[in-house]
């Protein structure tokens, strides 16, 4: 798969679990977005790991009166499956976000 990788971010993949640079953008009284610049370091190497580690498939879906192929590959995971979330940094991300927001992030993809 062709990918234009970063010229400057060839570090090993990691995340900032401290959320030290998070900026909260308030949308209205009840909605907001948290933006954390560079929360993931080494995103290119993480992307390469994800491509190699996951079992990618093209699903079908019903559209009107027939089944059609989705125009994307997916590799979903959920906590109930009991399987490991790979690569391990994705599990670290899931736990970090679950702890920060007090909500169990139980699926990916």
Word description of this protein:
The protein has one domain. Helix content is 23%, strand content 22%. It has two helices and eight strands. Strand 5 and strand 6 form a beta hairpin. The longest helix is centred in the C-terminal third of the chain and has 14 residues. The protein is globular and about 50 Å long.
Short summary of the structure?
The chain is an alpha+beta fold and 109 residues long. Helix content is 23%, strand content 22%. The chain has one domain.
Number of DSSP strand runs: 8
Distance between the termini: 19 Å
What is the mean predicted local confidence, pLDDT?
A: 92
> Over the alpha carbons, how many angstroms does the gyration radius reach?
17 Å
Strand order of the largest sheet: 1-4
| Main pleated-sheet profile | 2 strands, antiparallel
- Tally of discrete structural domains: 1
Shape: globular
Number of helices: 2
Q: Give me the strand/helix succession.
A: EEEEHEEEHE
Low-confidence stretches: none
Structural class designation: alpha+beta
| Subunit arrangement of the protein | single chain
Relevant terms:
single chain, 109 residues, alpha+beta, two-stranded antiparallel sheet, two-stranded antiparallel ribbon, 2 helices, globular
């Amino acid at each position: 798969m062709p990918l234009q990788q970063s010229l400057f971010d060839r570090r090993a993949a990691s995340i900032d679990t401290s959320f030290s640079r998070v900026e909260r953008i308030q949308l209205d009284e009840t909605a907001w977005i948290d933006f954390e610049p560079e929360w993931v370091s080494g995103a290119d190497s993480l992307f390469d790991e994800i491509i190699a580690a996951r079992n990618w498939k093209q699903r079908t879906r019903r559209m009107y009166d027939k089944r059609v192929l989705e125009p994307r590959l997916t590799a979903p995971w959920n906590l109930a499956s009991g399987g490991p979330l790979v690569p391990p940094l994705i599990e670290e991300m899931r736990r970090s976000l679950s702890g920060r927001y007090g909500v169990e992030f139980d699926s990916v993809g």
